[in-house]
Queue: 2 jobs
Job 1
Amino acid sequence: MILSACSPSKLALICIIAAVILTGPVSAQSAGTYSLKGDELVDQGKYEEALAMYDQAIALEPRLAMAWGGKGVALYNLSRYDQALEAFDQAIAINPGYAKAWYGKGLALYGLGRYEESIAAYDTALQIYPEYGYLVYYGKAQDYAALGDYAQAIPLFDTALTLQPHYPGVWVEKGDAMAASGDYQGAIAAYDTALSLEPGFVKAEVGKAAAEANLAGPGTPATAPVVTTVPPAPAEVTTPPTAAPVPTRTRASFPLWAAGAGLLAALLLLRRR
């Protein structure tokens, strides 16, 4: 009876309003659903499929920062660092206080060899979200090591290891930095710690042998370890990380920033902030 009393123009207006009310939330919900599906695919290492989900989310809701951040994660794990940086920058433009995007930007810049800029991005992430402490100190240590500034890198490795001491890969990286700086005794101690955590860890054994040969002096053939570092993984951050694990350079379980099992764990933890 009420509807029959309405004019056709009023009925049309009611239909339009109803459509707006109904389709608005549905679109937003669909965008969030696509983004969460992308996160699940990232967890499974299905980065190309994840990108498709994030792109659908962004098509529905272009200002969904979490979708841009997730897209950055997927692109970074595909070693598409330029595109990852663009995605993280988009997330930051939408939400300048998005710590995850600043952290991801630091990782992408590291992958591009832009170490000073990477350090600055990490510092911003830490200011916004101090719980990133371990990951930021570790990432900055890698940046300084890549720059050959071991005086800066070694204390940062120490700070990171004070917060998370149980990852042999980072002890090896500290040992590499110490060996490169000429502190072979300190390097041997770091390699020994790595071996106590993971007996038979090849990189620790090789590094230790080289450091011992350098201590023995000329005439002892050895090849000093090369300081090579692997960037940590960005992540969708939806809940504060508790015990953030570290990237290890020898336990590769999937082709991310070409890292190891520790990187995957960091990704999973950080994604939930």
Note: The domain at 149-226 is CATH 1.25.40.10 (Serine Threonine Protein Phosphatase 5, Tetratricopeptide repeat).
Job 2
Amino acid sequence: MKYFSGFSLKNEFHFFNRYINNTDYNVCGFSYGAIKALKYVKNQLTNGKRVDTLILLSPAFFETKSDKFKKSQLLGYKKNSDLYLKQFIKTCFTPYIPQEIQHSTNNIDELEELLNYKWIEPELLELVNLGVKIEVYLGSEDKIIDVDGAREFFLDISTVTYVKNANHFLQTN
């Protein structure tokens, strides 16, 4: 299986073991990694490769957020990226105690892509028509993305699993 990490993260795969069927033909992405996973699957299919399932774990969904919100996120990152990332990780784990997490290199361009990415229904439906099953997992207590907006958007395109009392990392108490 091919896995794509969330913004500024690495090696967080273990948080999602219970949601993933780890086979050679599955592609999985968490949060910002969901965007990268989608791009990867499209490329694989274009090149005649097999993909059975695209698994989107708390996919980055900020389409319903205001421009003011997005600008404030970018400004906070530019002002002090370390403080921004510390608060970001804390919010990812809310309402539970933050876990130890490894970080990767990151930059403002990735954050901007994350905040401004638009999911396109016909693109996803094309994957489905090519035989790719899309699974989306959302936590009811996720304080990072617009869970309700994501749920509404993905419901007609994929199998959506709504994890009660789960945070952005899909952890429950």
Note: Helices lie at 32-46, 67-79, 81-93, 108-116, 121-129, 147-154.
